[in-house]
Inverse folding.
């Protein structure tokens, strides 16, 4: 895609096969957000990027792991590196560990994002601090596939303190919640490793969720929204 297409918002050019794959994903049925956790599949996601600027920085990698039937399924996971035209800075590489060769030899963005959508299906998404992951994924999907990604998300950064209000002030980061529940991480700041730790946090919250009858995705999302309001008014 040339710079004029990006500037004027021209629709990306997909091959017929790519367009068919995207159409097949769009045609998938929407999930039942009121279905109990025990019969639902959620995809917990984390991203690595070239920096923290939501406007200028680029999506480098997506890591995702499924939670279905109330359990983490490692076989139902994925991590993909998007091919970069310009390698990120040395300081940035030191954070996520995705070197210049891995970035330049990654999967072409259109193919990488179609693979992500096919893995995701229409399963609801879960993350810790959704705004960043969602913005970076949304922008990449719009840029490379021309897709306005309207998907259901739930944010454990709000759900966790809603369930444990006594910890709301002292626990703000993923690392703090991981420590609280004794969750390890084999490669912090790896997209897949962080997605796995976030999935483990989600399961660690289930006891409180069950006690508060937060027993389906819509209830999780409602709790997320309620905590945002508490933060806003508090």
């Amino acid at each position: 895609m040339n710079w004029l297409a990006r500037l004027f918002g021209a629709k990306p050019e997909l091959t017929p096969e790519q367009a068919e794959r995207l159409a097949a994903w769009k045609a998938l049925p929407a999930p039942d957000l009121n279905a109990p956790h025990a019969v639902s599949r959620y995809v917990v996601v984390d991203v690595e990027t070239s920096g923290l600027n939501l406007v200028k920085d680029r999506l480098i990698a997506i890591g995702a792991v499924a939670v279905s039937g109330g359990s983490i399924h490692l076989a139902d996971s994925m991590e993909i590196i998007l091919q970069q035209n310009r390698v990120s800075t040395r300081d940035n590489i030191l954070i996520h560990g995705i070197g210049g060769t891995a970035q330049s030899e990654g999967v072409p963005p259109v193919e990488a994002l179609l693979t992500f959508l096919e893995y995701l299906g229409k399963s609801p998404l879960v993350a810790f601090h959704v705004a960043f992951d969602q913005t970076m994924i949304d922008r990449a999907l719009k840029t490379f596939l021309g897709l306005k990604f309207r998907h259901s998300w739930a944010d454990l950064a709000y759900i966790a303190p809603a369930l444990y209000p006594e910890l709301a002030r002292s626990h703000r980061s993923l690392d703090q919640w991981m420590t609280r529940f004794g969750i390890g991480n084999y490669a912090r700041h790896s997209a897949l490793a962080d997605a796995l730790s976030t999935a483990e946090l989600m399961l660690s919250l289930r006891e409180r969720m069950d006690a508060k009858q937060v027993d389906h995705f819509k209830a999780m999302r409602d709790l997320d929204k309620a905590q945002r309001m508490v933060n806003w008014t508090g």
